[in-house]
Amino acid sequence: xxxxxxxxxxxxxxxxxxxxxxxxxxxxxxxxxxxxxxxxxxxxxxxxxxxxxxxxxxxxxxxxxxxxxxxxxxxxxxxxxxxxxxxxxxxxxxxxxxxxxxxxxxxxxxxxxxxxxxxxxxxxxxxxxxxxxxxxxxxxxxxxxxxxxxxxxxxxxxxxxxxxxxxxxxxxxxxxxxxxxxxxxxxxxxxxxxxxxxxxxxxxxxxxxxxxxxxxxxxxxxxxxxxxxxxxxxxxxxxxxxxxxxxxxxxxxxxxxxxxxxxxxxxxxxxxxxxxxxxxxxxxxxxxxxxxxxxxxxxxxxxxxxxxxxxxxxxxxxxxxxxxxxxxxxxxxxxxxxxxxxxxxxxxxxxxxxxxxxxxxxxxxxxxxxxxxxxxxxxxxxxxxxxxxxxxxxxxxxxxxxxxxxxxxxxxxxxxxxxxxxxxxxxxxxxxxxxxxxxxxxxxxxxxxxxxxxxxxxxxxxxxxxxxxxxxxxxxxxxxxxxxxxxxxxxxxxxxxxxxxxxxxxxxxxx
Length: 511
Prior knowledge:
about 5% strand; 5-stranded mixed sheet; 4 domains; mainly alpha
């Protein structure tokens, strides 16, 4: 009997061969997707990582119409191939698109790609591109473009966009496979913090579309009813942050709506943000939106685990922008972290204790016209952190492909060049050693994880894997210690707890 298995073949196949779509498991599409055993049928995901033929077609049509700048990132091979293909088209194919906008006044021509993406997200599949919503439900920014849809349909066929996209699909699939692990880990961490692991969001979906033709600076987040969508460039520097922000809306918007009637005290301060010129009009006019966004900003700040000075600088920027409830939520989340219920049950407690009059007096001293601090985000966007994220994505991708020597080198590079004590790197090395049947190296690396200050899921799985290794070595007492330690963590992650309970009931290798 060897070491704990590195994961079922079907999970590896789902990660490596997405064929357009990856459904991210709630529990972890990252290192754990390779090592933690099969995902049960009941653990269906509410998150889809995909690419959209509708977005691709509409962006190509907008570019061919001459109303948008060059597609994607300069030098991107996908964008360059699309630009080259569009340039070779017969002018008669693009003439109707150009004529459509030539007949409009300047203020009727979209100034950015955002309305085109809104339009694409309400269209059905190619080649018909039927509008999926009643006309009176079409988003306001997309409504003026409804007359563009028949032209997109014709252009798709005449320009043979289906064949072009088919040629480019491997690049989209590769981007999804390479980023799926990190996105899965990020979203699992988010669910874990809110104690929503294992809770099902029936009838609701969050779809992330990676689109090489989108400008890297553009993040297009939409919510249409129960469906949330994010469109962004695969190489956007803060991709994980953008994905998490929209996911927090997906998780917290319905909770905030449920308890909207309990926000009366906070609503009394809505007039304060009229003075905040950097705050979008929607937030100035809607207390529910402002409260929810303030909570999300506070959760993000908590998840970053910054030093006090950085928290103070970031909070100053958040408040001066106009998210005036963020400080209250940041402090209230400290109590939430010590409690047991999920955010769906604890949310009313976050609202309690808000003193509107004291807050009014404090906010009178906030300079809402202040420019963003140059130091507020220093810990979030430092070169070291960027390098760390990039190297972790690379290492996990290599691990997913089963290239263990290269994965080991990538994790070791993190320890040598970025952070000599990074627990995720030691965990990755432990998994590599497990896959290569090197028990001693696996134990050393998992124990290094325990010696650091890791995230709860890394701590829990390290205990589970150490327990399994000790079981295989015949050290049942030591194995039991680790299984019990994993359960004592209260990670609120069902698969960790299930694995630990199974280890307590029967030695690993006899299960």
